[in-house]
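Reviewers asked in the last cycle whether our approach scales beyond single polypeptides. To address this, we selected a multi-component target totalling 255 residues and predicted its structure end to end. The input consisted of the following lines:
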Amino acid sequence: MKWITRERVKVDRVACPWLIKKFVDKDAEFLFVPADQVMDIAAREGAIPYDVKGVELGHHGKECSFEAILKKYNLANDPALVLLGKIVNGADTDNTLWNQPEGPGLEAIAEGFRHLGYKDDHEQNAAEWIVYDALYAYCQEMVRQGKLDGDFKS
Amino acid sequence: MLWESHMVLAGQEEALIQRFLVQVDSSYGEILSELEKDPVLHRIARIVDEADVVQEVTLEATAPGLDLICRGIRLISPDDWVALERGRLIYDALYAQLAVE
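The resulting structure, written as structure tokens, was:
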């Protein structure tokens, strides 16, 4: 399938492609386009829009697009992905929903990747996925230790 | 950075660790004087210090996130060298962000 979102990615639009490729659609092809063209190109290309206003796989209330994908594709039964979703939420939103202490650090690093000179959103995604591989490994370890909210939340 | 040294030292012989620590001590003064010249590095040193040591009060909001990403990188890396290389990318990103700030 093709998956489409707004260009100039930051947190959710790196975390979601990572999640889609690893857990939803291993043959996923990603499109990053100007915000005002997402829905037109989605219709033309038969692509699934995500992290765009007004779509199913977008923000709902204080939940972020990553969490919408977890729900839609029955991934919320993996507590490590749920914890990862809370951390992504913390970095992508005002962090008032889950108050994950890890949010600001992920946000700073995600913002920093935008300044490392990658030529486009594809290249940045490819380089930055290691962050989410690391986060997921950490979340799995936390779940093994019975810390479903991570090591920092009291 | 000292933060990374744990990964390098893990599982090494005691004599090697001692030699490494002496080298680190002797160059630490130079590193500190470099930090004074670069406010971004100075800031990163504070964040790393907080991320590396369990603290009652978090002054640097980015420390817990940095800590967990570095811990995760250790978990997914086959050896310390790969972990260092990947960790460097994380610090490049953090540096880039703080420099813009």
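The beta strands of chain A are 2-6, 29-33, 48-49. We regard this as preliminary and will revisit it once experimental data from Aim 1 are available.
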